[in-house]
Amino acid sequence: MRNILLIILLGLCTSLNAAPKKVMVFVALCDNATQGIVPVPAKIGDGNVPAQNLYWGCSDGFSGYFKASKSWKLQPSPATNDATILERLTFKNTALDCEITAEAWRGSDISACLQAFEKALVAGDHQLVVFIGHNVLMDKQIAPPAQAAAKSCDAMVLCCKSDIYFRDRLTTLKVRPVLLTQQLMYPGSFLLHDTLVPWAQGKDRATIRQAAAAAYAKNQKISQRAALGVFANLTD
Fold first, then answer.
1. How many CB atoms lie under 10 A from the CB of residue 64?
2. Region of poorest pLDDT, from 7-21, 145-159, 186-200
3. Torsion angle (degrees, nearest 10) of CA 235, 230, 177, 69
4. Do residues 173 and 122 make contact, with C-beta atoms less than 8 angstroms apart?
5. pLDDT score at 149
């Protein structure tokens, strides 16, 4: 009986001391002036102003959406001294035992943002790394890292047609893609918010895709079937 109690106590101590799952998000701010996008209204398409930006400050942007979430709590975050990173935010979700840090990158520095995303994938410091923004690989070639990931890592790439542009890059880096897109789409952070739940719970990629489709259908007011077609079918 004493041995059983000891095993239970040791298990409790281990779970209490376990580090939370860490997620890193790179947001390339929407920028009419420098990105190959269909222009959006000037106020939300200025890649130098995160507070108003489509992908950051707007209600569906990362900052706007996660600050409004009841399940994610804002945490102190180290300041950034990098001129290319305009804001950094950290949130924690106790129920999911998960911590997420996101950076708003100046829109004109989208190439550097993508390179930082891929560098984080191979560094091995996070269990999930996410890119949100315009698919800059549609406009130019950017060399991937020379070395593969040091540890197992998952990736989400929320931009237009990321499957055909990123899947081979990710698998070559020995990274597991868990959410990619196969159509032109709107990468609102409601997608990240709702898919983090099944991801953190260890669900398979089909379940993550279904969660993305449900969130997209609700936001875009389209059918679940149409929304499902936006996301690539990644089988486990």
1. 19
2. 7-21
3. -120
4. yes
5. 96
